[in-house]
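Case study: Piso0_000338 protein.
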Amino acid sequence: MSDDDSKISKRRQTKKACLSEEQKKAHHIASEQKRRENIRSTFDKIVALTPSLNEHENRSELNILTKSADYIEALKQENDRLVALCRGRDIEVPSKLKYNGPGPEKMD
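Here is what the predicted structure looks like once written out:
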């Protein structure tokens, strides 16, 4: 650890030691609220990108993840169909346009 890192670490320890229990609790609550807001914001992005979801239906995480996974699976199948169609017409498909993800794991 460099001298600068050591100084920063000591300052952090000193700041932590100076915080009262109420300040620590307030900081923890604020951090947790920020974490939850980040998760909520990311789920909002997923809802906006998934056609089978809308902002007025059930917003449970399970519903969002299930419909998003179904949509991704449909995109993979459409990609496979289009690649096969191109091959059938002797059209070369660049590898960057072919889905090469983790594989056909079935979660049924």
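For the exam, be able to explain this: Residues 21-49 form the longest helix (29 residues).
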